[in-house]
Amino acid sequence: MNLAELEIGRMAKILEVKQADLANKLKEFGIFKGVQVRILRAAPSGCPLVLESGGMQLGLRKEDAVFVNIAKLEQV
Prior knowledge:
- By secondary structure, this protein is α+β, with helices and mostly antiparallel strands.
- It has a domain at about 1-40 and about 65-75.
- About 15% of the residues lie in helices and about 40% in strands.
- The protein contains 2 helices and 5 strands.
- The chain has a 5-stranded antiparallel sheet.
- Strand 2 (about 35-40) and strand 3 form a beta hairpin.
């Protein structure tokens, strides 16, 4: 499953970023393999997605989110 497929409000763990340039960019914001993220919301058009990780919010284009493999985490 990739990040673009995750439902709004759900938590996931990053498994892999398949594009090196994107992986490097996300690392600058503290998002890398093993980190938990949540989709907070999406623009009305569905793009960009607003992610939350470690108390920080980040906008990510949906076409980039497809390169981020994730594992859904259970709702608590």
